[in-house]
Design brief:
The complex is a heterodimer of chains A (605) and B (251).
Chain A: E1 6-14, H1 18-29, E2 34-37, E3 54-55, H2 67-77, H3 84-103, E4 118-119, E5 129-130, H4 136-148, E6 154-156, E7 159-167, E8 170-178, E9 184-194, H5 215-222, E10 227-228, E11 233-240, H6 254-257, E12 261-263, H7 287-294, H8 309-321, E13 331-334, H9 345-352, H10 354-364, E14 373-382, E15 385-386, E16 401-403, H11 420-442, H12 450-466, H13 473-487, H14 494-511, H15 524-548, E17 571-577, E18 583-589, H16 595-604
Parallel strand pairs in A: 1-2, 1-9, 2-6, 9-16
Antiparallel strand pairs in A: 3-5, 4-5, 7-8, 8-9, 10-15, 10-17, 11-14, 12-13, 13-14, 17-18
Helix pairs in contact in A: 1-4, 1-11, 2-3, 3-11, 5-15, 9-10, 13-14, 13-15, 14-15
Chain B: E1 3-11, E2 16-24, H1 31-41, E3 61-64, E4 67-70, H2 76-79, E5 85-88, E6 95-97, E7 100-101, H3 104-112, H4 132-141, H5 149-153, H6 155-158, H7 169-179, H8 189-194, H9 206-210, H10 217-234, H11 236-245
Parallel strand pairs in B: 1-5
Antiparallel strand pairs in B: 1-2, 3-4, 3-5, 6-7
Helix pairs in contact in B: 4-7, 7-10
The chains are: A alpha+beta (605), B alpha+beta (251).
């Protein structure tokens, strides 16, 4: 027995955003004892930041929609590197997951017929996103939270996990500390679900909160799991860029879904140029047709602002590089122009985009009903993540370890469509919870290793024992973020990536000497020092995978290999911890697409 | 404005005091930026909560120059006067450390509020017919980001410390959205009166004034709930009608 308080659950869920809450609810419904660990307070996870909506092919607004079209859209958006099985399950199951949220209290905006209203979004052929104004993520997390607190789940708030515990190959728990007093905790579990979200804090300009340090990706990797598709980081095309303090904060794609257009400093609507071949037939020829599309004309095709995020982000960068950017290095996003088209546009914008109105008014002094916004790309989402079985969400190599939501890889391939994240959370959160509960019931016996706990405790205490160091934890974090931004960002090449891998090694050495002052009570310096291990692990995985993929596809752009190359379309990059302890990479063939799904892709065009 | 002086409350449950920090500013700085800069450069162990930095998660509540606000949505230039800018934790909740308070009581109260019971679905796919006008009222309350600033300023909690008998504005907003949910059958009116203490609210509207989401807490949530409580409990005619017909006043 260790000296640390022990908590025993059948299923331990790490991370309490949409995926974690949904997993915990499902596991509890299966009748097992569930523990839910949140890094922050309950209900504060990054899911609250999701704005635009949840993709689910319910066909409430356009009855031509269905799971087949959603599946084909998701695969096209992901440039066919997706796990086709996950894309299939996701498209089939998301409508039911959306309706289920209503039975738990969610109140989506409505159609005139009294059904859930759906809106247009980039890469989705039909209006598909269930939404509540531009605060859909808040609606989702609050619904799951308010339902979850009545399901007998033990919630551990403000607890950070630093290591997964193993019994042989199997994952049997976790070690962590509480923020309040820095006390260690040992969690014993028959199955563990990771739902820790993303890793945006590896970059300087990001929409992610302090929590997004890639904890789950890194915990899984160090426990022997494989990570896939780590080269694909979504740079959301529209983040705020001015003033500096707001840099990176998200501006929802919903602005474009409601008719917002992108312009350069010449007033030119540059998105009409360079439409990617995969999308030419689905894109409007004229601004007029684009406007008809966003206002519900079923015969019209989408405006080019609603192309996939990877493309829009690259186009903005190109305008800036060629001297046509906005004053602070981005593009103009204009929703105010719709006053030319509709009466009372001011009230309409405030109703459809209330938090965007508020955000720009308060933080930038801009009234979006009257003036354009200045926007540019911001690090938003990791398509890559733990390689899992598509049906059960269990790690391909670590039995008893499950992953759901952003920390899991596969669904989104090379680029995620907006709106497919909120649906991902609940579809695969549910599956992970269900299969983790089943695994726990089928595998009741396990042992916890005392030496492993002692090693974890030693590792966690080390920065405090070293005391204040010359270079502090925040400085190292900043150094890594700056380097990743410059060298592993939206435009990459072999030289930069190799330099970044060297830089990561150097910073890792520095981290082994970094210390933190103060004591164990709520000490952000200490916590940041501990988060660095995760940030470095995911940074290395991104840079290594990006160097290996010598083509440009989806969110991954190589200046030295600017074109997409068909021979790179048949495999995913996999990284894992090698026998020597270093990171190794391999190319893994994508399993052949079943004929039925291939036909759907063919038919849907 | 190139720099500003901040007086930040630092301490724990036992003791604490204001510490002064000089912070160089960048354009558009919000108070949370200044706190982060102090944390990164001068006091690594300065404790504060934050997540989204965009007014959506409700984590960074504090009292800035004595006013309860979100640090992420308060621009430094808007609160800078002649003297230093003071930043201190919410005073209604016990301090854990520096700007971080123990808000766990709020989570306990919420869990005690009766859960939802959906009525039978209207459609075969298991969903319900609801119109926009049906959901608009509760949608206002569902904007709540649980920053607990309303709880912090409510004098029933802040001055009278009636935590055991009074749920506070946040939870009346929560109860209101549930009561006004078009498909929910649970009746929380007796609980609001007996356990949640809605009668103690004397509608001074302090909560409404501080709500960063501009929810009209008092007029739209608390007063309608009070009316339902009164109708139910004290109106003899309504009571009689209900007894005879079993009618509900939900909706």
């Amino acid at each position: 027995m260790s000296d640390y308080p022990e908590f025993e659950h059948d299923v331990l869920v790490i991370g309490a955003g949409g995926a974690g809450l949904r997993a915990a609810i499902e596991a509890a419904a299966q009748g097992v004892r569930v523990g839910l660990v949140c890094k922050s307070l309950l209900g504060k996870a990054h899911t609250v930041m999701a704005e635009g909506g949840m993709a689910a092919a319910m066909g409430n607004v356009d009855d031509r929609d269905g799971w087949r079209t959603h599946f084909a859209d998701t695969m096209r958006g992901g440039q066919y590197l997706n796990s086709w099985r996950m894309a299939e399950l996701h498209a089939k199951e998301s409508p039911e997951r959306a309706r289920e949220l209503e039975s738990w209290g969610a109140l989506f905006d409505r159609t005139p017929e009294g059904r859930i209203l759906q809106r247009n979004f980039g890469g989705h052929k039909y209006p598909r996103l269930a939404h509540v104004g531009d605060r859909t993520g808040l609606e989702m997390i609050r619904t799951l939270q308010d339902h979850g607190i009545h399901q007998g789940i033990d919630v551990h708030m403000e607890v950070t996990v630093t290591r997964l515990l193993k019994d042989g190959d199997r994952c049997v728990g976790a070690f962590g500390y509480d923020r309040e007093q820095g006390r260690f905790r040992v969690f014993k579990a028959k199955a563990v679900v990771l739902s820790t979200g993303g890793l945006g804090r590896a970059y300087l300009v990001t929409s992610n909160s302090w929590e997004g340090t890639g904890d789950g990706h890194s915990l899984a990797y160090h426990a022997g799991a494989e990570l896939r598709d780590m080269e694909f980081i979504q740079f959301h095309p529209t983040g705020m860029i001015w003033p500096p303090s707001v840099r990176g904060i998200l501006v929802t794609e919903g602005v474009r879904g409601e008719g917002g257009i992108l312009k350069n400093n010449k007033g030119d609507r540059f998105m009409f140029r360079d439409i990617p071949p995969l999308y030419v037939e689905q894109t409007a020829d004229t601004p007029e047709e684009g406007w008809r599309y966003v206002t519900g004309d079923r015969e019209a095709r989408r405006p080019p602002e609603l192309l996939t995020r990877d493309h829009v982000a690259r186009k903005i960068v190109k305008e800036v590089q060629e001297g046509r950017g906005s004053p602070h290095g981005g593009a103009f996003l204009d929703i105010a122009w719709i006053k030319e088209r509709i009466k009372d546009s001011e009230a309409h914008i405030k109703k459809k985009l209330p938090s965007m109105y508020h955000q720009f008014k308060e933080l930038a002094g801009i009234d979006i009903t009257k003036e354009p916004m200045e926007v540019g790309p911001t690090t938003h989402y990791a398509m890559g993540g733990v390689a899992v079985d598509p049906d059960t969400q269990m790690s391909t190599t670590v039995p008893g370890l499950f992953a759901a939501g952003e920390v899991a890889g596969g669904l989104h391939g090379a680029n995620r469509l907006g709106g497919n994240s909120l649906s991902d959370l609940v579809v695969f959160g549910k599956r992970a919870g269900e299969h983790a509960a089943k695994f726990a019931r089928d595998n009741p016996q396990y042992a916890i290793s005392e030496p492993e706990i002692e090693a974890a405790a030693g590792e966690a205490l080390a920065p405090l024992e070293r005391g204040v160091s010359q270079v502090g934890p925040f400085q190292l974090q900043f150094e890594l973020q700056t380097m990743m931004q410059d060298q592993v960002g939206i435009a990459r090449d072999e030289g930069l990536l190799t330099k970044a891998l060297d830089g990561i090694r150097r910073i890792r050495d520095a981290v082994s000497e970094v210390g933190a002052g103060g004591n164990r009570w709520y000490n952000p310096g200490w916590h940041t020092a501990l988060d660095m291990k995760h940030l470095l692990t995911v940074s290395e995985a991104i840079a290594l995978s990006a160097r290996e993929r010598k083509e440009s596809r989806g969110a991954h752009s190589r200046l030295d290999h600017p074109d997409k190359d068909a021979k790179w379309s048949t495999f995913n990059m996999i990284v894992r911890k090698g026998p020597e302890g270093g990171m190794v990479i391999e190319r893994r063939d994508i399993p052949p697409l079943p004929q039925e799904l291939a036909d759907i892709i063919e038919e849907e065009g | 404005m190139k720099s500003a002086t901040f007086k930040v409350w630092r301490g724990d449950r036992e003791a604490g005091d204001f510490q002064t920090y000089e912070v160089e500013l960048e354009p558009g700085y919000v108070v949370l930026d200044a706190i982060h800069k102090i944390q990164a450069e001068q006091a690594n162990d300065l404790a504060c909560r934050w997540n989204c930095k965009a007014g959506k998660c409700g984590s960074c509540s504090a009292e800035i120059n004595g006013s309860p606000r979100l640090m992420c949505m308060t621009r430094v230039e808007d609160v800078a006067g002649n003297g230093p800018i003071t930043v201190e934790p919410m005073r209604t909740f016990p301090v854990i450390k520096d700007l971080v308070t123990d808000v766990s009581w709020n989570y306990e109260v919420k869990a005690s509020i009766q859960k939802m019971t959906p009525r039978e679905p209207d459609f075969e796919d298991g969903s319900w017919k609801m119109h926009q006008y049906d959901v608009e009222r509760p949608q206002e309350f569902r904007k709540c980001i649980e920053c607990f600033l309303c709880q912090n300023v409510c004098h029933v909690l802040r001055d009278h410390q009636m935590h055991g008998e009074f749920a506070g504005p946040r939870h009346f907003v929560f109860a209101a959205q549930a009561e006004m949910n078009p498909i929910d059958l649970t009746d929380r009116i007796p609980q609001l009166r007996e356990e949640l203490g809605i009668g103690y609210c004397n509608i001074t509207k302090c909560c409404t004034k501080v709500c960063p989401e501009s929810i009209t807490i008092t007029d739209n949530a608390i007063i309608p709930l009070k009316e339902r409580v009164v109708d139910r409990s004290y109106d003899p005619l309504t009571k009689l009608v209900r007894r005879i017909f079993g009618r509900s006043d939900k909706g």
